[in-house]
Design a protein that fits this description.
The complex is a heterodimer of chains A (363) and B (265). By secondary structure, chain A is an alpha/beta fold. Chain A has helices spanning 24-27, 69-76, 98-104, 120-130, 135-148, 164-176, 194-209, 221-227, 245-252, 267-275, 299-312, 327-335, 353-356, and strands at residues 28-38, 44-54, 58-62, 84-89, 92-93, 105-108, 182-186, 213-217, 230-235, 238-243, 255-261, 280-284, 292-296, 317-324. In chain A, 34% of the residues lie in helices and 24% in strands. In chain A, the strands form 3 sheets. Chain A has a 6-stranded mixed β-sheet with strand order 6-7-8-3-9-10, with helices on both faces. Chain A has a 4-stranded antiparallel β-sheet with strand order 2-1-4-5. Chain A has a 4-stranded antiparallel β-sheet with strand order 12-13-11-14. Chain B has one domain (12-264). Chain B is built from 11 helices and no strands. In chain B, helix 2 (30-49) runs antiparallel to helix 4 (67-97) and helix 4 runs antiparallel to helix 10 (217-231). Classes of the chains: A alpha/beta (363), B mainly alpha (265). The A-B interface holds A 74, 77-81, 99-100, 102-103, 105, 107, 109-118, 122, 125-127, 129-137, 139, 158, 171, 174 and B 1, 5-11, 13, 16, 20, 23-24, 27-28, 96-99, 101-108, 264-265.
Chain lengths: 363, 265
């Protein structure tokens, strides 16, 4: 993808953003209030979710497998009917005004929704025609999108013969071919190589700066941390946290100390000592043989204090690592560390979130 | 999408999707070839195996010409039924690949998606029926009612095929599973064909098969085709066939439309 854009300064342009003006209807791209979805059979996928997304915002929707992310996205893009609650996109009700909502949105789902028997340019041209463009206008726009998504060299190649990353890019290009004002992307970077992921985030930032709202789910928390203005964390059909990545990280502590103690019997005492330190916000004891994780306001100043207090109690610390808190820490704090079993519409059985991106998961 | 589509002209969605579906048949012809090959093979084999039937007094009394001419109508209908099954499988593939989601969130009428499918199915069925009829003519068959009769045979069979395609499409839309669509479609398709006078004249069929055939729209279409091939036109039979096709279309197509509306659920 060749679209370039300078990144806005951190998350200052986020929701809590003061520079967004107008009435709530004009300001909000997505409004969700007490959204409930119960599938036939009784499984509750969404249990009363409420949030809103500003126009031009990049909003990350995070959650373990089976938490209800895809259900929420499918309701918002008019593919699924809600059980109750309010869901609006661009001020339009997603059910009562579904046709007008479809005019203004783009969507790329978890499956790469391209036609394998059509060429790249044919796929995009079809997308334009389906959105009311004339054939020539759709074809011209298809050419532009191929350039933006670095697919111009394979314009005449059937989608079935493209690599996985190219197919994903083609899918994303198709989602945006008609210039939607709100783009919904369900795990858009899955299957992309690092270069393509980086380019996609740059493109999304570029779109955001030009007023397009981006609503996405992702399994890559470090990307959401860098690129999203705000994130929402969904767990078991409930929204457990919404905020800027920066604020959420501050809430769990500015940083993290990971301690390994030599004698496991000392673990209980160590937890008691650590919990009594004023700037320790949380202690994650872990299981036998695992390191202790301590969340602190400032890891660099806390580390010497933690070490000296533990040594004063005769606890032998084998190693201590310090790091800034990440969105992973936020995520694990609010959704727990238990691997999830995915069920229902979200797909086949799989293990939990942390393992999905190669992170070491304490047991 | 083809470059032959006029530039600068807004293309009706059903036409664009119809062109897309046809292009897929051309570029991935395996399934369509299979649905054409089976009736062609049966036409060649059965017209030889059962050719002696035409010499029996019972068959001759009914006034039919050769067994080949008698068989053509059933084989044309068989190709339509198989193409209907391929239509359901194509829908199933669109669902599995996420393409159906893309169509459903486009600002187009659901009926446009269905119309695109019907358009491609109808063109494919007409071409296939024409090939089978052409093969039969090359093998020595004649159409007693001429070109008009041949066109009427193909048109009625295509109408049946398009209406029947609603059933595999319904299975695909409700189950979202290509295996179930294939198995369910086949389980229904073959009885629909065999419970007709496709292979033996109606008076020679067992009583219970004749009873079932009276409510089987394929039986009306096949019998009309057989008359057009060998006996000449029968307006009474034509009207009965038109009613059967009308009822079949009125029942099956709305079911597919309803299923397409809930396709994403």
């Amino acid at each position: 993808m060749t679209a370039t854009a300078s990144r806005t300064s951190d998350h200052a342009s986020s929701p809590e953003r003061a520079n967004v003006s107008g009435t709530p209807e004009q300001r909000l791209a997505i409004e969700v209030e007490d959204l409930i979805k119960v599938y036939p059979g009784g499984k509750t996928a969404l249990a009363g979710v409420s949030f809103s997304v500003d126009r031009g915002e990049i909003f990350g929707f995070l959650g373990p497998n089976g938490s209800g992310k895809t259900t929420a996205v499918r309701i918002l893009v008019t593919l699924l009917r809600k059980t109750s609650g309010i869901a609006r996109v661009g001020g339009l009700d997603v059910e009562a005004q579904a046709g007008r909502v479809r005019d203004s949105i783009g969507f790329a789902g978890q499956s790469v929704g391209v036609d394998d028997d059509l060429t790249a340019v044919e796929n995009l041209t079809l997308g334009g025609v389906l959105h009311g463009r004339s054939y020539s206008a759709a074809r011209q726009r298809a050419g532009e999108m191929l350039g933006i998504f670095s697919l111009a060299d394979v314009a005449g190649v059937r989608a079935a013969r493209l690599s996985g990353g190219m197919r994903r890019r083609l899918d994303l290009a198709q989602a945006m071919v008609h210039g939607p004002t709100v783009v919904f992307l369900d795990e858009p970077t899955t299957g992309l190589d690092p270069q393509s992921r980086k380019a996609l985030w740059e493109l999304l930032r570029h779109l955001s700066e030009n007023g397009t709202t981006v609503f996405l789910t992702t399994q890559y928390l470090e990307e959401a941390d860098r690129a999203c203005d705000r994130v929402a964390i969904l767990d078991d059909g409930r929204l457990v946290k919404v905020g800027t990545p920066r604020n959420l990280k501050q809430e769990v502590g500015g940083g993290r100390l990971t301690l390994t103690i030599r004698e496991d019997p000392d673990r209980t005492l160590a937890v008691q000592v650590l919990a009594s330190i004023p700037n320790v916000t949380r202690v994650q004891p872990g299981r036998k043989g695992e390191p202790l994780v301590v969340y602190v306001d400032d890891p660099s100043t806390s580390a010497p204090l933690v070490l000296s207090l533990l040594q004063a109690e005769g606890i032998d610390v084998a190693s201590l690592e310090q790091a800034q808190a990440s969105l992973d820490d936020v995520f694990l704090r609010y959704t727990g560390e238990r691997p999830r079993v995915e069920a229902g519409v979200e797909g086949a059985v799989s293990t939990g979130f942390a393992s999905a991106h190669g992170r070491r998961r304490p047991h | 999408m083809s470059d032959t589509l006029a530039r600068g002209v807004r293309v009706p969605v059903s036409l664009a999707l119809g062109a897309r579906n046809l292009l897929k048949n051309v570029r991935a012809p395996m399934l369509i070839t299979a649905s054409l090959a089976q009736p062609l093979i049966w036409l060649v084999l059965f017209s030889q195996i059962f050719r002696g039937l035409a010499d029996t007094p019972a068959f001759r009394r009914l006034g039919y010409g050769s067994y080949l001419e008698f068989l053509v109508s059933g084989m044309v209908v068989l190709s339509m039924l198989f193409t209907g099954l391929q239509s359901g499988l194509a829908t199933s593939t669109d669902i599995a690949t996420g393409m159906m989601d893309k169509l459903l969130i486009s600002p187009i009428r659901r009926s446009g998606i269905l119309a695109g499918r019907v358009m491609a199915d109808a063109v494919t069925m007409l071409l296939q029926g024409g090939i089978i009829l052409g093969a039969a003519l090359l093998m020595g068959a004649r159409v007693r009612t001429g070109w008009l009769g041949a066109i009427a045979l193909l048109a009625s069979a295509t109408t049946l095929g398009v209406a029947w395609a609603s059933v595999p499409n319904l299975i695909a839309l409700r189950t979202k599973n290509s295996e179930l669509t294939m198995v369910g479609g086949l389980l229904l398709t073959l009885p629909i064909l065999f419970l007709t006078p496709a292979f033996f004249p109606e008076p020679l069929l067992p009583e219970w098969v004749r009873a079932v055939a009276r409510v089987n729209p394929a039986a009306y279409v096949i019998e009309t085709g057989q008359r057009l091939m060998s006996l000449g036109n029968d307006w009474g039979q034509d009207v009965r066939t038109l009613i059967a096709l009308g009822v079949t279309t009125a029942v099956l197509v709305p079911l597919a439309v309803l299923a397409s509306r809930g396709a994403a659920e």
